[in-house]
Amino acid sequence: MIEFLTEPWQHVFMQRAFLVVLMSGVVCGVIGSHVALRGMAFIGDAVAHAVFPGIAIAFVLQTSLVVGGIVAGLITAFAVAIVSQNRRLKEDTVIGVFFAGAFGLGIVVMSTAPGYGGSLESFLFGSVLGISSGDVITVAVAGGFLLLITGALHKEFVTVGLDRETARSVGLPIFWLDMALYAMVTIAIVISIQAVGNILVLALLITPAACARLLTDRIGRMMLIAPLIGAFSGLVGLYLSYALNLAAGGLIVLTATAVFLACWVFAPRHGLLRHRGSAAAAAVVPVRP
C-alpha cells in the first residue's frame, strides 16, 4: 500500500498532475457550491462550450490557453447578457444559441491546426499528464485569485442565490454579481480543462457541490465539504489512472460520481436510507397497552 501511494510521486509529470487536480478540485468545489446554490448547472455546461474557441485560437497561435479561454468565455457571457435584454427570448434560449455557436467556432479553428485529431481529443477529454510547470503556476495563481474573490463576495453571492428579490431590494448590484460569478465559473473551468477535458469539466464543477448539498444544510460547511470531495476525487482518480493505465479525466469524474451515489444513499439526513427508515417508522402503528 505504501508503495502504491508513493510510487506515482517519483515521476515529475505525476507530481504536476497531482498538484493541478488538487487545485482544480478545490477551486471547482468552492465555485461550484455557488453554482449549485443558484441551480445554474446549465451555465457551467454552457461556459465550458464558450471557452473552447478561445482555447483553440490560443493553441493555433501558440499563446496562453488560459488567457484565450478566459477572454472567449467573458466575451460570450457579456454577449448573452446583452441579447437577453430582449424579453422575447428567455435567457436559457440565448445561452443555448451563443454557447453552441462558440463550440462550433472552436472546432472550426482547431481544424486549422496541425495534428487536428490529437489536439481536439486532448481538449475534449483532458491531458493531465502533459501539464507543464508553467501550467501549474498559472493554475495556482488563477485558483488563488478565485478563492480570494469568492471570500470577498461570499455574502453577496449567497444573498442573491437565496433570494434575488431581497438582494435587489437592499440595493445589491445583481447584474454585476451575476457577471462576476460567470467570470469566476469561466476561470475555474479553464484551469480545470487540462485535468478532465472540456466535455467532463462540468462534473468537477457540479458533482462535489451536489455531494456537499446532500451532506449538510449549512452553506459554510458546504463550502468546505465540496472542495474536499473535489480534491479527493482528483487524487483517487489519478491514482487509479496510474495503476490501471486508463484515462485520468474519466476516472476522476467516475470517482466523483461514485461519491455522489454514496452520499445519495447514505447521507445522514437526506440520504435514501434515511428517508426509507423515516417512512417505515411513520408507518408503524404504536401498540397500545
Automatic annotation (TrEMBL):
The lineage of its organism: Bacteria, Bacillati, Actinomycetota, Actinomycetes, Propionibacteriales. SUPFAM superfamilies: ABC transporter involved in vitamin B12 uptake, BtuC. It holds the Pfam family ABC-3. This is Anchored repeat-type ABC transporter permease subunit. Keywords: Membrane, Transmembrane, Transmembrane helix, Transport. NCBIfam families: anch_rpt_perm. InterPro entries: ABC_BtuC-like, ABC_TroCD, Anch_rpt-typ_ABC_trnsprt_perm. It is a multi-pass membrane protein. Belongs to the ABC-3 integral membrane protein family. It comes from Kribbella sancticallisti. The chain crosses the membrane at residues 12-32, 65-83, 95-117, 123-149, 170-193, 199-215, 222-240, 246-267. Its main location: membrane. It is found in: Cell membrane; Membrane.
